[in-house]
Write a structure and sequence with these properties.
418 residues; alpha/beta; six-stranded mixed beta sheet; five-stranded parallel beta sheet
């Protein structure tokens, strides 16, 4: 299996391991496989979620130096449940049972274990730069903390993450450093990209969803979840996915292309309407991000759109495959209340975006809303709406009570290396 850049025309290619360690292609593009492999005929659900995910990822490492380590990596990385919650005939895929109570634990842990194994083999060191609008940084910091051969610099926008998210971003020492950037998430993301393109800096890589090693586990849990759903109901589901930087959504499209039983994929954005506007007008216009209650989705220039454009290169094919709807803050709050009043189920603001889109656009079909984070991470928003405190998961409680350490910097990547 070989990988090319989204910006190349059949030029230089890379192995999966090289793509993971590099993070970004030399020309600034994102790594994609030359072709999407098909699910193996031997695919089975009988050995649990982690093994199903291993089977989905394995074809992407055919002939790679990690091929023989992959089963062990998946067993270690995917060590927590991937359950469905069913209420009122509606299914929600809960992806927040990892160490930092967010879906990004899947990708961050797989990436950390993979990188550590590769660097051990090669006797090399790497510095990881990661921009976060909320959950990514905490998941990466947790997954990479005390990993050999690796150091991490986490960038997050000042005043734009929830308090409990900030505690997760700053409660680290040793090989993890946190930077509070005077700007937006887009500024943080720009700083990371500019650092990568600076030829005077070496030994850098990324743990954002632009990294192939983050995306493949996200593809894998859609293979698993859609297969479980089909087995349970005998129907393919529409997956409604809260979307910001579009890595989670891209994983679902790759899973569908592999043959996973997914009927359709619908993106739910917050007030950052870059994708819905593109579908509506045919003009793709990245823009500054808008601050919302679903802050992890506050992205005005989604990086993974390059991968979606590689799959659906013109507006006609894009419209034929991608649906996207925007949800306002008022709708987020109303949906959290509505779901709780109906069933007692408590959801986070990001999940509320997905639930609102399901109710407004796919209510008559078999569907799954992807729940991306535990609502306890957003207690200041959710608790006043549901009228009671939300119990904090034990793993989240432990992280939140570490001593905070961070450095405030201007939005210039040179400040990361001073």
């Amino acid at each position: 299996m070989r990988y090319i850049s989204t910006r190349s025309n059949g030029g230089e290619w890379f192995s999966a391991s090289d793509a993971i360690l590099k993070g970004l292609a030399p020309d600034g593009g994102l790594f994609i496989p030359e072709g999407i492999p098909q699910l193996p005929e031997s695919f089975t659900l009988t050995k649990g979620a982690w093994y199903a995910m291993y089977q989905a990822i394995k074809p992407y490492f055919e002939g790679d130096e990690l091929e023989n380590d992959l089963e062990k990596i998946c067993h270690s990385a995917f060590s927590f449940p991937v359950p469905f919650h069913t209420a009122g005939g509606k299914d929600t895929l809960e992806l927040y049972f990892g160490p930092t109570a967010a879906f990004k634990d899947f990708g961050a842990r797989f990436l950390a274990f993979s990188m550590e194994r590769l660097l051990e083999k090669r006797n090399e060191n790497l510095t990881i730069l990661v921009a976060t609008s909320g959950d990514t940084g905490g998941a990466v910091a947790s997954a990479f903390h005390n990993r050999k051969h690796l150091s991490v610099k986490v960038l997050f926008p000042e005043g734009r993450v929830a308090q409990r998210q900030r505690m997760q971003l700053t409660g680290w020492d040793g090989n993890v450093s946190s930077y509070e950037v005077e700007g937006s998430f887009d500024d943080c993301q720009r700083m990371v990209k500019e650092a990568f393109m600076d030829s005077s800096l070496s030994g850098l890589s990324s743990a954002n969803s632009i990294n192939l090693g983050r995306l493949l586990p996200q593809m894998a849990y859609y293979v698993y979840a859609s297969s479980v759903y089909k087995l349970r109901y005998g129907e393919e589901a529409v997956f409604v996915i809260p979307s910001g930087n579009v890595g989670n959504s891209t994983g679902a499209y790759w899973a569908k292309a592999m043959g996973a039983p997914i009927k359709r994929i619908v993106l739910a954005t917050n007030a950052n309407r870059t994708i819905p506007d593109y579908i509506e007008t045919g003009n793709y216009e990245p823009r500054p991000s808008v601050k919302t209650l679903a802050n992890a989705m506050d992205v005005g220039a989604p990086s993974n759109m390059e991968r979606l454009f590689a799959a659906f290169p013109d507006i006609e094919s894009f419209r034929a495959n991608v649906e996207a709807y925007s949800v306002s803050d008022d709708e987020i709050m109303a949906t959290i209340r509505e779901v709780h009043d109906e069933s007692g189920y408590v959801i986070c603001p990001h999940t509320a975006c997905g639930e609102r889109v399901r109710r407004d656009h796919v209510s008559e079909e078999h569907s799954v809303v992807v729940s991306t984070a535990h609502p306890a991470k957003f207690n200041d928003i959710v608790e006043p709406l549901v009228g009671h405190e939300i119990a904090i998961p034990e793993n989240l409680y432990e992280i939140m009570h570490k001593t905070p350490q961070s450095k405030r910097i201007a939005a210039d990547y040179h400040n990361l290396f001073q």
